[in-house]
From TrEMBL:
It is found in: Cell membrane. Gene3D superfamilies: Calcium-transporting ATPase, cytoplasmic domain N (3.40.1110.10), Calcium-transporting ATPase, cytoplasmic transduction domain A (2.70.150.10), Calcium-transporting ATPase, transmembrane domain (1.20.1110.10), HAD superfamily/HAD-like (3.40.50.1000). It comes from the Bacteria. This is Ca2+-transporting ATPase. The lineage of its organism: Bacteria, Bacillati, Bacillota, Bacilli, Bacillales. GO terms for molecular function: ATP binding; ATP hydrolysis activity; P-type calcium transporter activity. It catalyses: Ca(2+)(in) + ATP + H2O = Ca(2+)(out) + ADP + phosphate + H(+).
Amino acid sequence: MRWYHLKTEEVEQKLGVNPKQGMTLQEADNRRKRFGANVLEDEKHTSLWLVFLKQFQDFMVLILLAATLVSGLLGEYIDAIAIMVIVLINGLIGFFQEQKAEKSLAKLKELSAPLAHVKREGQWMKIPSKEVVAGDIIKISSGDRVPADIRLSKVSSLEMEESALTGESLPVAKHALPLQQEHLEAQDQKNMVFMGTLASRGSGEGIVVGTGMNTAMGQIASLLVKTDHMATPLEKKLAELGKLLIIIALLLTLFVVLVGVYQGHPLYQMFLAGVSLAVAAIPEGLPAIVTVALSLGVQRMIKRKAIVRKLSAVETLGSASVICSDKTGTMTENQMTVKEIYTPSAAFSVTGEGYDTKGSFFQGGQEIVPDNLKAMLLYGALCNHASLEQKKGRWLVDGDPTEGAILVAARKAGITTAETNQFKIIKEIPFDSDRKRMTVLVEDKNKNRFAITKGAPDVLLSRTTFLVDHERRAMKANDQKQIEQAINRMAGNALRTIAIGIKAVPSGAVPDDFFLEKDLTFLGITGMIDPPRKEVKTAIAECRSAGIKTVMITGDHSITAQAIAKDLNLMPKDGQVLEGHQLSNMTEEQLSNMIEDVYVFARVTPEHKLKIVKAFQRKGHIVAMTGDGVNDAPAIKASDIGISMGNSGTDVAKEASSLVLLDDNFATIKSAIKEGRNIYENIRKFIRYLLASNVGEILVMLFAMLLALPLPLIPVQILWVNLVTDGLPAMALGLDQAEQDVMKRKPRSPKEGIFSRGLGFKIVSRGLMIGLVTLAAFVTAYQGDPDQLRYAQTVAFTTLVMAQLIHVFDCRSEKSVFSRNPFQNLYLVAAVISSVLLLLVVLYFEPLQEVFHTTDLQFKDWTFILALAAIPTVLFGFTKK
């Protein structure tokens, strides 16, 4: 269908859609079921069967299977079957871990997918792009990623960046008129916008005419590249560690085999023992546990209203030393309320809270709404993209909160939608953060035309020639001085100021932008406040105690920003404020020299944000930067942790970011940093546990060999320990709660190695002690009597398991085993109890006694075993090292 050929009315008719009401929820659901979700077909996923087989392609596991085969051929059927079962169970655990990680990552991808602004049953709402159907009415604003192919019905200075589709980087201006030409290529269809392209300027509305594979992007779906899982820096470090451990394990295996054969043990038995030991030495489950720990941590972040788009951000969060945060909406409620209005003839105070339309205007204690005030608010409501709607008894603003506040003030003055609908918008010059103003050309019912400009007072005043003081007259120097005093007074009360001006335009004329925005007539200034969020003050204090500096960045007046910063206890007494014009005149080096003392950046543009990020980075900081607009994307991308706003953020900002705040709240950043620190610490915990356990297993075998003793552990026992004792508690450590002082520590250095802060010493020292007590248990039980070998191996096996299960509680803290309540992590308690129950089954269930070469233990054996097993943890429980 050549939708660009048709008038919008014809498109609406063909798709059966009412442009005023949009699609009904039922019809949208029916169409989605009939035509499918609005997604491009992805590459085929690896089958579950292949994912399962992949668990057995590890080099050491293949060697173990080969050794098991040899054992079977030599008649050791029980051992061979037992090892095969253990390897199978290990493979199943790895399979389920990988599936869990895959589902978690898929869920994250779904959560971070773009949203579409659609009209359903007369209401504008935001829905996931995949739920869009043909016939939906869609609203597009600057910075939005287009969710489907759309025939435009309304445009306002809309320009699209279509390089994803056409390869052309220059923006394309759009209109809503039908095109008469035949067989137009996508880049020539000026009344269409296409899935995946980006609105770089202006706004528009249109009707969805193609979804999913029925879009221009769907036709060239081969251009869609599946995003592979990129290893995080930590995963890369662990991969390098794994290679090192493999080399060490192979050398140990060779050594154990040679020593064992030299001492007279059978070659196949020593080979199997050596390989089993190598498998135990290499924590092959570590990468899967890391991925699961990261993805589960990310799931917890989602509950705290933060979506992680890049897993590497989880590690970087723990290193953050500076948070550069927007003020509006992030540190404040983002529910602007007009409190004061200044006009050249009088000043007014305004009552009412939030977006409630109930409120009054007072002049000198008298309630009054004069004509000039009502006219000013009417013009403010016309130069406005926001809309008011009532849901469940509450008034909500759809659009910019500043515009919403002006709209609410207009409603308080009695200006209705019917009144604003009498005016027709002829042209719009959209707001952007560089111009700091927005202009519309309107026509009233009498065909009179005039331009309305709304924006920052300092910008408008420089373009103002006249003012209305009972009647229109030329502005004088004294008038400008009074206006500036009013601005400063409002800013000193932490009010954000927006000025409104108008200009008469000849009937029927559509002048250029420059003409519309010069020689304006000043009408007045609205002073509005966006109160700080209650939880932000505490969050900033917690960040400070965590060694993280919080910096406020805002486009507001410096006095307003300073007042909010002091209210939040963000800025110390000697803290400095920098304004945009000062930043513009500074080199990066000059800014770097003084940036440590700056806590508030006011009147800044998005370009300044990039300069601020680089200056902090030059001082060695790890910078988290928030943003929501298209122009914020470079600074977000350049920062170490880019943070975008889930509610107010554009799709471009979200795509550039590594973290999305669902509630646009600064306190969520603090929670994400806390969670990020905890995830990293949990990974260190189970690395410590796994490697210390493996060191203990290796050393007990090595020491026994060097002392010419029989094997304290047989291969199947080593593998059982590696699977049951190591696996379940290690996973539970990945779910551990944060320690109380996690936000009282300094940020972690990004150059910090895995074994830093004494972790390497803890692994070796605890592993050595676990090995020694296991050997002591074996020697005491064996006493040189070959008839006691099975009993001694059972005692050694049980001591090793119990020493590791007690040691796991020591791994929960960098300080001491006594510093944390062991029942705080119920997952860990359950994992330990499960491991003990499985141990008891192996010890006392007769069929398994033959498989694992175990025998019954008496009460006195258990007291001896538990006393020895507790020594490593108790011994080091009184030291931080």
